Amino acid sequence: MIKIFDTTLRDGSQSSDVSFSIKDKLGIVRALDDFGVDFVELGWPAANAKEMETFLQAAALNLRTKIVAFGATRKKGIRAEQDANLRAIIESKAKVACIFGKSWMQHVEKQLRMNKEENLAAIYNSIMFLKKNKLKVFYDAEHFFDGFKDNKDFSLACLEKAALAGAKCLVLCDTNGGTLPDEFDNILSEVKLFLKIKKITTELGVHIHNDSGFAVANTIKAVDFGISHLQVTVNGFGERAGNADLCQIVPVLVLKKGIHLPRIRLHELTKLSNLVYTLANIKPNNHQPFVGKNAFSHKGGIHVDALMKGASYEHITPEAVGNKRKIILSDLSGKANIIQVIKKFGYQVSKDDSRVGEMLKKVEKLDRKGYDIRELSAEEFLLAEEFFGNRGIFFKIETWKILSEQRNGEFSECILRGKVNNEQADVVASVHGGPVDAVFHALKKLIGPHYKNIECVVLTNYKVMIAQDNGAESSVRVYIEFKNGSDEWGTVGVSTNILEASLEAIEKGFTYFLLKHYLSNSNIYKYP
Known about the structure:
Blueprint: E1 3-6, H1 22-35, E2 39-43, H2 49-58, E3 66-72, H3 84-91, E4 96-102, H4 105-110, H5 116-132, E5 136-142, H6 144-165, E6 169-174, H7 181-197, E7 203-208, H8 215-224, E8 229-232, H9 246-256, H10 269-280, E9 297-298, H11 301-308, E10 326-327, H12 331-343, H13 354-369, H14 377-388, E11 395-406, E12 410-420, E13 423-431, H15 435-447, E14 458-468, E15 475-484, E16 487-495, H16 498-518
Parallel strand pairs: 1-2, 1-8, 2-3, 3-4, 4-5, 5-6, 6-7, 7-8, 9-10
Antiparallel strand pairs: 11-12, 12-13, 14-15, 15-16
Helix pairs in contact: 1-2, 1-10, 5-6, 6-7, 7-8, 8-9, 12-13, 13-14, 14-16, 15-16
């Protein structure tokens, strides 16, 4: 049976432009568990305190997905039980370890300063030590394909030694991503023959980088060789050119090759992709297969005409992967999408309703400005309530001023004037912290006297990225997450002024909370 091993939070986070907080990692772990992957490589627990804390918090989650701790074979000249990296794997409380060892003599001699026998002993000792501590161990044969081309006897000996030590899976790594498909096929054939001759039945896996653009193709090809353990990352994140993309490999296996992956919830794929882009603070690739915004977009007149008449220009249905069809230069598809969104919030209308067209225009305007509100339920809810809800506004900000300076440390102040339930109010909030913190507390101070529950809302995540790149006039997209008890939501603000964008996102975050808690309250006013 094929097993999906996700390494977004370890290898994917080694992308030069990716940095996940502990909260980000735990959110992605839960999403991967919900999607149905078999293993999540959470990180390298020996790297720093933050990595270890992530493991300890993840251990408390109720997951079906197995958490994996990453590390290296023991260092030269010490016993495995003395190696801090291996001991950290045990302390992480993970039940599965994935350790890498060198399988290319160039790296053994030049990087590790070991000879062949020392390297083989390090592989064997490290796996045995982890197994004695009741961990299941996967062995990543780093640089396997380059090592095989240089000295195949040594690379194969590394696999044999790992198997003898009791590794549950031997993972062939194309660490440089330079192996071409024909080379890949030939090497896999020789590996399979070697294992057969040696009577080694250990499971095989692959971990392919994308430096030559073949990570997805080679990973899928591996399945034809009976390889059942596939290491991937969401959106292909990874060092240099990235890794094999889960968002391409999983739908190809399920929809194209007819392989049953019992836990996988394929209709959640686009949602997973968007979440990882959001938390990585990276703009989505609109042209990404299966999950990209343009993956099922149609602009050409012949294509659109065929679709309208029931013929297809799509290799799968967009809904199979949780995506949507988009017809350019026609509002028919747009209106259908609006109706689907508002239906989630209990509104039943037809595409002829003028409000559908009005909401569509606003969505398109937000999209042009760089809001990118896909899969953000709070943003969808606010739009649905704006156009279809019979409500007023809880509060209105009329003027604002934000100051930030160094005054025996960081000091910030926010001055707001506005109305709450039609009552004028002026507030000042001062904090020993940044300007966003000051805005957050000023809004609470403004709203709190009328809606006490607002005090329970906390700001849990803050991310900024370029929305429209216009040099010094560029606009920024601020994404903020909030929490109240077990409820979590995120909202977006866009402006050429980062403080204004932050204020917009916080204002919307509070409005969402108030609507959810006080929607039936009659003391809500409409402001001119």
